[in-house]
Amino acid sequence: MSWLHTWSGLLLGWLLYAVFFTGTLSFFRNEITDWMRPELHQSVPDAGTAQRGLDAMQAIAPKATTWTLSLPNERQTAIEASWREPGAAAGRAGTQRTTLDAGTGEQLQPRETRGGAFLYRFHFELYAMPRIWGRWIVGFATMLMLVAIISGVITHKKIFSDFFTFRPRKGQRSWLDAHNATAVLALPFHLVITFSGLVLLMNMLMPWGVQTAYNGDSNAYFSELRGNRQAQPGAANGNAPREGGRANRQADAAADTPVAMAPVGPMLDAALQQWPAHGVGSITVNAPGTARATVELREGGGSSLVNRGAASTLLFDGVTGEPRQAPEAAAISWPRATSNVVSSLHLGRFAEPLVRWLLFLSGVVGTIMAATGMVIWVVKRLPERRKLGRTPHGHRLVEVLNVGAIAGLSVATASFFWFNRLLPADLAGRSDWEIRGFFTVWALCLLHPMLRPHRQAWREQMLLATVLLALLPLLNGLSGGAWLPQSIANAQWSIAGFDLMMLVLAALHGWMVWWLVRSKQTATPPARKPAAAAKPAAADAGLLAPHAAVASAMEQQR
What we know:
The protein is an alpha+beta fold. 58% of the residues lie in helices and 7% in strands.
């Protein structure tokens, strides 16, 4: 089990670190995207935002068959609007989108960026390869991660006693005690996030059940799977087929005659009485501006993981404003409900702000755990290198990959945000240039440790990451975004949350730099104790401190 744990973690450890790191940031995917579009930072919602958005849609798309407004909330500062014109293609291809200022209703033109979607997609699809290949690679790595966690728990004989053990001022032993306590505390999160990630890829990794039940027609399976989320035919959407002759055609013509819409304010008030916690998250208007118009209000959050946090809905007559009977949602089978619960735990879309921060901090611990296996692999082989009097090429390769994959990813991610503000806002294909900048910086961070001593490379890249992350809130204000005090005062928590997240990461990286510098100073033995010359391994073990480890604790116990 010890051998299995070591090699299942090392062989794909660098990839797993990147998956954990970008996946942890993805808990704030919406906040990252909002921050990377500073043109939206002056959009401040108020009580009239919803009506203002509907009035704007009347001017932008008066002949549309549907309008959908995603209203501002703690994770979004502007109105995200979409509509469909008559005869538009099915699905996303026929949907047009725009962004509206929550305070004025004017159309905004944010800069082109992939934002948080790039980090989110990278963590399970990678990049610059067919999506199916990326998902297979990440799925295989995730399976090895689950193997590493389970074998690590089996190997660690004193997992519970170590959780309650801490010996201060004992040097490396104190750090290992802290690692044990931290790793055991987040162990349930590691297991859930890894297993649920495999469940999300289940249809790809284990397709045989679907192929058997649907005779190889996977499209039929997914069509049926989405059935309980499709709009129900009938009066609710105004698209029900009608039979009859001239009388029906006249009735249809009368129904399509332009009429004034009822104000949405009373509908919102009625919805707030039923949803005081979440409020209204989105508004969908079917057949707007006609006698057949209906207004569907969707709750700003769900209350059950069984349906993946699907929100409740209320339906109103668009002309009179009177409530109407909304279609009942289709029943969910228990296998689907089980899958929904597990996958929802991974996605975290249900999470309130406090829970989201707890998931983020747990993800930080998981990221650290993924890095520690590679670092301890190097540290444990220092005695072997001293006996040989040289560093084997394999050991040196792992050292370089450790610095480039761990510290380098932090530098590259911070640079990704800097490129978002330094590139011209009207640059053609600028979202691709942001991503190219990310990978270019990451490649340079992989080259850097080849040219510098191992410990020096760690310190330099960690220091660079600290500076880049810490200055991001300042960069935001200087490049047209909202300053942190301003975003907090306006309750723009998507923007403030990003700045605070960067400061937390900067503090963590700064602590790593401090530890690396301090450990080098304390590692120099007094000249009068020749025997202390045999301690370089302990000195280099200072690299472990920034990476809380299940793996290191297991090896020490053995």
